[in-house]
Transcriptional regulator
Amino acid sequence: MRKENSSNAINGRQLRGDCGTAYTLSLIGGRWKPSILWKLLDGRLRYSELKKAITGVSERVLVLQLRELESDGLISRIVYPEVPPRVEYELTTLGYSMEALLQHISDWGAAHRPQEEDPLPVAVEN
C-alpha cells in the first residue's frame, strides 16, 4: 500500500494535475490495461472471455487491472443475479472516448515493432 503523504505520491498527483499525457498514462499505463480496453472496444465480455483473449496475463493481475479501470471510470462491471453468478465488463462512454488513442497506439506499434530476424538460410543439397 502506498503512503498518500510521501513525496513520491505528492509529486505524482502534481504531475497528473499539470500534464495531460501523465494523466492519460496514469489511467491506461501498464502492460495489460491497453489490451483490456482494446478487447472491450468490440463489446461486452465476460471475465473468462477476457482471460482467453489476453494471453499471458495472470488471473490476479487481470482482476487488479479490471478493478483499476473500473475505479477510473473507463469500464463498468455488470453483475447478473444468477447462479452461478455471471459478470461482464464493458467500456463506459469515457472508455470509448479512448478508441482513437488506442488505434493510434496500435498503428504506431505495428509500424515500429522490431521485425523478427529471418532464420538462417538452410543449405539445400543437390
